[in-house]
Amino acid sequence: MTSLKFRSPSQHSIRISPLQRCHARPRTIISFSMKDSRENDVSHFSLTSQSNPPLNPLVVVGSANADIYAEITRLPKEGETISAKSGQTLAGGKGANQAACGGKLSYPTYFVGQIGDDAHGKLISEALQDRGVRLDHLKVLSNAPTGHAVVMLQADGQNSIIIVGGANMNCWPQSLSEKDLEMVHKAGVLLLQREIPDSVNIHVAKAAKSAGVPVIMDAGGMEGDIPKELLMFVDILSPNETELSRLTGLPTANFEQISAAAKKCHEMGVKQVLVKLGDKGSALFLEGEKPILQPIISAPKVIDTTGAGDTFTAAFAVALVEGKSKKECLKFAAAAASLCVQVKGAIPSMPDRKAVLGLLQAA
């Protein structure tokens, strides 16, 4: 097993302000403004920290897939073979998607994951590097292929996906290296998903919790219950409606039912539940408080919803580590997701910070 090491991405011009969470050493954050002011152009960033301490990174531990697209007019029926209008292979996977989003949003982002020593692995590593993601903790396996997904994309932008785990689900060490764990300890936020073994997620979530690092768990990925041992280390659980129903065993057909399901998650030990509601927006349920609702920021045309949920979760995480209010985090994430669905592909569709801030000004 080897580890990829690439050149560091170029430094961005950013404005930074103190991170609110206390740590032993100085921490800084990138900030954004949603004010529409000609005197404060939010698309302009400048480095203003006097001490220039390093930013606490977004650390994503998760999956990396080659997404094999087939554009179809409808899903095939049982036993039926249909022809696709076109097809191509793009980099994806929930972990890689979220890392790419963090990189595109100009926030220091590290990806901890596994790929095979093959063409698909090269496709993913190049896509992540091109988007500014640090790959010092990406392992290349000689004994397992890169994971891949078959994405059946319909004309309205909706998709159905079949995942083959490959390196994402195999050959993980019993314990991550000291180098990997040190990066987790230094994180501003840890992002997890369910396309790698639960045992790995438990290991890194526990390490993050011990260092006071917030843990956001995207519920997307494998079916089945999330282990209680994992939930006890999760600060924010982020499912969509379907995942929320599956995790709680409750219906989620309307907002009242979604609220009841979120309450059950609270009873399971998760204090904050960030529910992605598709074209109905999103809602953050904080235990003992009134839900915070965020409508969608409409896209002129929906091309492909693949990666939209990952974009939303990662953008929320970036805004959170930058010290924004929960309401601001939701709006920033909604803008990023709106831009994402207007481009085909998962990683190729991740918006940059300037585009997100521009949309927020116009919204």
Automatic annotation (TrEMBL):
K(+) binds at residues 304, 306, 340, 343, 345, 349. InterPro entries: Carboh/pur_kinase_PfkB_CS, PfkB_dom, Ribo/fructo_kinase, Ribokinase, Ribokinase-like. Keywords: ATP-binding, Carbohydrate metabolism, Cytoplasm, Kinase, Magnesium, Metal-binding, Nucleotide-binding, Nucleus, Potassium, Transferase. Residues 58-352 form the Carbohydrate kinase PfkB domain. GO terms for biological process: D-ribose catabolic process. One of its GO terms (molecular function) is metal ion binding. Its main location: cytoplasm. It is found in: Cytoplasm; Nucleus. Activated by a monovalent cation that binds near, but not in, the active site. The most likely occupant of the site in vivo is potassium. Ion binding induces a conformational change that may alter substrate affinity. ATP binds at residues 240, 276-281, 309-310. Its cofactor is Mg(2+). GO terms for cellular component: cytoplasm; nucleus. Pathway: Carbohydrate metabolism; D-ribose degradation; D-ribose 5-phosphate from beta-D-ribopyranose: step 2/2. The active site is at 310 (proton acceptor). Belongs to the carbohydrate kinase PfkB family. Ribokinase subfamily. Homodimer. This is Ribokinase.
